[in-house]
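Dear all,

This email documents one entry for the complex benchmark we are building for the journal club exercise. For each entry we list the sequence lines for every component of the assembly. Then comes the predicted three-dimensional structure of the complex as a token string, followed by one or two observations. Please use this as the template for your own entries, and keep the labels exactly as they appear.
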Amino acid sequence: MKLKSLLMGATMLACMGPAALAETITIATVNNGDMIRMQGLTDDFTAKTGIDVEWVTLEENVLRQRVTTDISTKGGQFDIMTIGMYETPIWAKNDWLVALNDLPDSYDVNDILPAMRGGLSVDGTLYAAPFYGESSMIMYRTDLMEKAGLTMPDAPTWDFVADAARKMTDKGNEIYGVCLRGKAGWGENMAFLTAMSNSFGARWFDMDWNAQFDSDAWKKTLTFYLDLMNDAGPPGAANNGFNENLALFQQGKCGMWIDATVAASFVTNPKDSTVADKVGFALAPDAGLGKRGNWLWAWALAIPAGTQKEESAKKFIEWATSKDYLALVASKEGWANVPPGSRTSLYENPEYQKVPFAKMTLESINSADPTNPTVDPVPYIGVQFVAIPEFAGIATQVGQEFSAALAGQQTAEQALEKAQALTNEEMEAAGYK
Amino acid sequence: MARAVSTRKKTFYTIAAWAVGLIIFFPILWIFLTSFKTEAEAISDPPSFLFFDWTTENYGVVQERSNYVRFLWNSVILSLGSTVIGLIVAVPAAWAMAFVPGKRTKDVLMWMLSTKMLPAVGVLYPIVLIARYFGIYDSYLLLITVLMLINLPIIVWMLYTYFKEIPVDILEAARMDGATLRDEIIHVLTPMAIPGIASTLLLNVILAWNEAFWTLNLTTVNAAPLTAFIASYSSPEGLFYAKLSAASTMAIAPILILGWFSQKQLVRGLTFGAVK
Amino acid sequence: MATQHSRSAARFMISPAVILLLGWMLVPLIMTLYFSFLDYRPLRGIFDCCVGLENYSRFMGSSSFWDSVTTTLSMVGGILAITLVLGVLLSLLLDQPIWGQGIVRILVIAPFFVMPTVSALVWKNMFMNPVNGLLAYLWKFMGLQPIDWLSEMPLFSIIVIVSWQWLPFATLILLTAIQSLDSEQIEAAEMDGAGSLSRFVYIIMPHLARAITVVILIQTIFLLSIFAEIFVTTGGAFGTRTLTYLIYQRIIESQNIGLGSAGGIFAVILANILAIFLMRIVGKNLDA
């Protein structure tokens, strides 16, 4: 008995000892460049606050699997989770996240871009702080565009893009006019295709939650995409996601690439990109219906409810998403490598305005409207996603059908038919109808 | 015994075997080579084989970003721990099955194997909830237990088939001499069983080392092994072949080296009763 | 022969393993069974008892279910076929007198030590990628159009990747079996003028029957739960969605634990049917 209490005392001391000296918080994050940079700068945070940080850096799909399981079982493994604009409102509604409504004045919460703040809030309360935000835009090769005898307007149409892509394509020399996402997944090809379909006047659901894949607008979207990719896309496009296309573009194999605005800093970075000085930017295309095919996304830091280290976690979020952090990165790595798309003040900074893609990124972000994403009215929020819990599962299955169509295993009609059936089936089972 | 073989035949077989061996080994060699290239070199067209500027910068980047030693240490603890505890549980069971077979021995053995067919993802939530209930998430205790349990059937099976080949007469002779059960195990059985136990140990260390579902889903920091280390290098933004190769080399090198040095021991007991 | 005493001792020695495995099997299984009768969707905050057999009928009723069963069977079958055929040939080759046998054997067993995630990542990105992959260069070098492996022949590609990992295992077991073959028997057959083909068919193959059944049994157990290779390469697209992967999608991606658990129960049943089937064959072979 004595021994036991002694042991217990020792254990408690061992547990409390370090906690009294320095608390350690555990942060789950995705292995994107900006986060890895943040990880490298952790010492600055520890020096300022005395709080230690353990990083769990995982590939995006694995990260999602881990944090979702953890939060839905209240596993309590993380003090901060890196989540997106899709998860935030759903989790917040379940009371799974700590509200970030008591941030100090110095943090200047009003400085956060309104689009980002809106997407990460529920009923006006912020639940996750944007680490970086993005929309999508066209990145194109100025030299190839010139060679094709064309000039890229700031706000092109899909017809122009398709025409330019076909003219730039030179398969013999492994130049492909356009690289687009084809890899199945709600955050991969479906992010692109859903945003694209918005500009073609399509939508996921009508006001009564009926799937709309049988509409002409979706048929037009998918056939346009498939025809374009078959004529001017790279081989193996059905397995290309963001990373694969980035690699192709950096190698100089793509004429145009429509994807996340954060990619701009990678393709213009001469260290990794062979075409760093030949990249131009333009808004995502439209089809004359008043909506552009660009999305809106933010990687944000959120605190799961129930963590014992809420105060320390808040301190970290204040540090990582502050203006000072942006200045810190700029002083170490240059303005082009600052995490973009989160703060208004960044875009007002004359130093940052010199970055070639700053203006187009801001314009793209501002032109996306999650509350009013489509031409026809919809019952949901979200540009390239539908902010309901069932969406990820459904969209990944739909994405697999579309990806199979791109791989030539089925026609656009067959893919849409299956998508329509499975979406309606899932929605019915989920109790929407 | 010695069949006379012409040198010509031997040359032919040697060339064929080496060719096949190199083809099979090539992907691993390629990972190793790529890990010393720059990212640009890694995707150069045409691919460079040996003549490129060898650089260790990828290892530097990986080392700077993650605490490789901790992941490695956890891998060692988990794979060894689960295997040793598995052996402690399995040796008596396999011994009993092999030497005192009952009517249902075979059924029990088969049933044990069938537990390995539970789809891991199907029981993920139950296990996570149990782990949370006992507060042992991300601990050696949990991971060693889970890894031990998923490999236990294989351990029992391997030992059983090996023990069965040990002639019973020897045991009976020992029993005649008045040896107790303990003596039997310690002095008679163990020396004969060592090769089988050694190869069982090796095989299961390998299996536990490479297990990537539970080790990824039940760990965060404290018990995270090399499989979690790899998950932070798979498909990040930008070019990553060289860094992925460096991380992969670091993840597989320890077990590969162990495997190579112990392959004789591994092979000796790896029969699963396939040899009569 | 065995005394009452040793019997009870034996029972005592077996029991830890049996109890542990029983616990490991029953506790999660009962929980899964329980979940499968619930409407359990954590993202909606729903945890409702009880929906009867609804989850089962939905899981069975969707067209993806039967597709996934066929995919699972063809994937496992394909991998078994490749590893067995190549494994027999390779072990015959390695049994021949060669210079540097030890090194060749090391080269051949190396893939077995590679983590499935690593091997899938490397095959996908560095070999099968149609633009930057090594196979694409090889094809271009030969003047052919590079193949887009993972979307043109996705199932075959995954079978190749997994076979590469498991070929060493099959080869090793088969090789040990071949080496145990009485060489006098072969010599006698040679004397009798039996050609190498008939030697193979009448002497070597029957001798290998046990080893082959063992390889089938052990590999099937592991192959039924293939996950990392699919997760990393196709993510279940292009008809590579196995039953395990389908359950993963239901539970993790759709966060419908009830539905996924029903799928899990099906997978257990399927695995046990296969197991009984296999055990019959193996059991018979091992008794002999």
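Observations: Residues 91 and 175 of chain C are 5 Å apart (CA to CA). The first strand of chain C starts at residue 38 and ends at 41.
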